[in-house]
Structures are given as C-alpha cells and as structure tokens.
Design goal:
- It contains 15 helices and eleven strands.
- Helix 8 (270-285) links the parallel strand 7 (256-260) and strand 8.
- It has 484 residues and is an alpha/beta fold.
- The chain has helices at residues 6-14, 20-33, 45-60, 102-109, 152-159, 176-182, 216-226, 270-285, 301-316, 335-346, 349-362, 368-388, 414-418, 425-430, 459-472; strands at residues 40-42, 71-75, 113-118, 166-169, 185-188, 209-213, 256-260, 289-293, 394-398, 434-441, 447-454.
- 58% of the residues are buried.
- It is globular.
- The structure holds glutamine.
Length: 484
Amino acid sequence: MIEKTVAELAKALRAREISSVELTQAFLDRISRYKALNAFITVDANRSLAQARAADARLAKGEAGPLTGVPIAQKDIFCADGWRTTCGSKILSNFIAPYDATTIEKFNAAGAVVLGKTNMDEFAMGSSNETSFYGPVQNPWDVESVPGGSSGGSAAAVAARLAPAATGTDTGGSIRQPAALTNLTGLKPSYGRVSRYGMIAFASSLDQGGPMTRTAEDAALLLNVMAGFDPRDSTSLERPVPDYAATLDADIRGLRVGLPREYFGEGLNAEVARAIEAAIGEYKKLGAQVVEVELPNSKLAVPCYYVLAPAEASSNLSRFDGVRYGYRAPEYDDLIDMYSKTRAEGFGAEVKRRIMIGTYALSAGYYDAYYLKAQKLRRLIADDFTRAFEKCDVILGPTSPTTAFKRGAKTDDPVAMYLSDIYTISVNLAGLPGMSIPAGFDIKGLPIGLQLIGKYFDEARLLNVAHRYQQVTDWHDRVPPGFD
Ligand code: GLN
C-alpha cells in the first residue's frame, strides 16, 4: 500500500480494499521505523487513528470525497486543533494550537487524516532544514545530505514513503526546493489562492501553502482541497476554484515554453543543466514550442527578498513575547527583562539574524534606502514576468542550482545558503504560481528538479504541463534505495 499514490489510495479506500485505519497504521509504523530521518516533530497515533475511524465510517456510508481516509502529513507551521504546533522553534515548543488553520479545516472536512506534524526550518527560515530546534532532517536519497528547506520534513516524509503526501509552505522556495532535492512534485500556488489563516506567518506578502506529492495528479487532488477564498485571510482572493484534476490530460501541442536566459548561466551545476536540457527535449516531443525570454532583474531577487522577508518577519515575530502563549524564560527581573530573555532563549541564530536585519531595514533612518528600494525592485521583478508571459505560456528552468548538499556544508555561510533559492525567490516576489517536478538524477544518484512557472492563477495549466511530462517519464516513480 505504501507504494501507492494518493489517487490510487483514494480509489482503494472507496473500493473498500483497505481501511483508513489499516492505511494510517501502516504509515505510522513506517514513521517509527524510520525515526532517524527526523521527518516529524509530533506524531500522535491516537488522534490520527480516531480520524481514520471516522473516515472509515464515512466510507462505509458512501459519503466519501476524493481524499477521505487518506493520511496527509502536515507541516508544523499549520495550527491544528489539539496538536502541538511548534513552527520548528523552541519558542513554541509547548504550544498546543487551540484552533485549526483553514488548510487543516479543509483537509478535515474532506475526510483526510492528519498523519503528524513535519519538521521544518525554524519559522520556515532556511533552505536545508538545519535551523530547526528539533534537529536536522535526513534526505532519504543520501542520509548525510540535507532534504532542502524549509519544508524538509514534509519532503523527507513523502520521499521515504512515510506519508503519501504532505503540505508545505513557500515564502522563497520552501516547497519547490525541497521537492527538487528529494524527487517530489511540489506546487506553490499564486499568492492569494490558498488561505494563510492559521499558517504561522513568516513574511505575509510572500507566504503561500501548497501540496508536496509524488505526482502532479496528486498535487491536483490536494490543491482541490486547499484552494479557495477565505474571509478570514484578507489577502485571499475571491475567485472560482477550477477542478484541477479535470484538465491534467489536456493536449499541450503548441504550448509556448519560455526559457529565461538568466536561469541557465553561471552558478548552475552542469549535471542539473543537462537534465533540464533533456526535459526541454521531452517537451518538444510533446509538441511544445520553445522560446527564449528574459528576466533581466532576476539577479536582484535574492537581495530584494533578504530585505523584504526579514522586514516582514521582524514585525510578525514580535508577537512571540512569552506573555500569552509559548515559551517563557524561567527567570527574569521585570517585564522588559522577561521579553528579552524569552526571545534570546526561545529563538535560534537564523531567526535572530532575520529579526535584526528586518528591524534595521525598517528603522526610520534606513527605510527609504532599503525597504522602499526593495519594494520598487519587487515591482520591476514582477514586471519582467509580465513581459515574459507575453511571449510564452509557461516558463521552464531549474528549481535549484545544485542537487542536495551535505549537512553542514553551508551553515557557516548564510549567503551561500540564500543562493539555494536563486531561481525560486522571484516567483514569490511576483506572486506567481511555481512548481518543481522530478527531472532526473546526478552522477551520485541525487534527484534533480525542473521548475515550471505559470501566469497568475494558472495552476491548472502548470499541473497539466507537469502531468504530461510525468506520463512520458518515470523519474517521479523512483524510490530512494532502502525505502521501497
Ligand atoms: N530559503 C528561504 C529563506 O530562508 C525561503 C524559505 C521559505 O520559502 N520559507 O527565507
């Protein structure tokens, strides 16, 4: 059963070939067997199995939806009622969420089972899952390498078949980059497509939740549940949700695929480049037409992001003060001392670095020089995409400049770490949908991800373009050795 996709599991559950309780138990067993991966922060078998029993009752009554009974691992950034929700931080190590995020609520309503809360970089700040207070996550393709981040636990869980699918969040690449490094399909929806309510905020104008799955078909099934307007999120858009599974098979002959010159230059690993070239060949065989496009400001995306994201984070993270919930320093003199000790002890080094950068960029004397300037750059970066999309329907390129790197390789060099997201970050700055799909392996057997970027709210097309590729390739079916 563990080898089946979400689509196949849903079918088996409806045909009553297996129960949700059996399925959930099988994945819980694998989670404890592969504990060394450190993919989960919290597992609560009783809660998961209670949900599975309820799903079985629904299935018995014939009231099942497409995901009823399917266990889904949830990134520990989503509040789930009664579940410990830590966001990878010590400061929330004792926080039991008193309500469900909209995403969790929607999965619950669909009858899916919360399989546990996955490990992540602290407050989703990172590209390697090494900033988690709960320890690093191993990449099942090479346990000494990182699974990417910040949704590294979700990535490792699905890649190692500890869960059929998971959620992630992506502020600058945190769904796509870990998907690329672990051979998964990951989709970051357009900004405003998926509710951020109950999803702990990192950089509110960039954060977006989305699915991490093995196939584009599964991503469509999850997005069908996650997408939609939410009055509780003022940035969610009131726009109809198409059935993303309905158009997966659409013909892509004549599709104009844009290749941004800037995504194939210096810094791109040669083996990654070769795999992307090969994928372009597959698309040509499927009838797509390749055009060259330009994204001239893309080199400014990383510096622009590292002003804006920390600025927003410094504001968002001011709520963690030890007063109403979360960790509080055990000893302090007065209120100010309590705040400062709580935050000094509760946050890790990367989070503190971001708060300092953000506070500096927003301070009265530097606001115009940094924050305002970065906002203007953001507009230019978004305009580049608008122009590029006059010439093409989707943009194609690498997701990450390299395959998975060894743990510790970039921890002393934040800028090297930040460059992991060089191809993904501009997509968040523009608010566009982006996807990573498996596209081959390097000589060491590590997965390579192909990125597809779409027009606003064109998730259906991205999923279609990804699905067509997956019909003629089998990269996405490969299982890490030892985990089959
Ligand atoms: N790696 C980027 C960062 O550290 C993006 C993280 C994310 O998308 N959450 O901020």
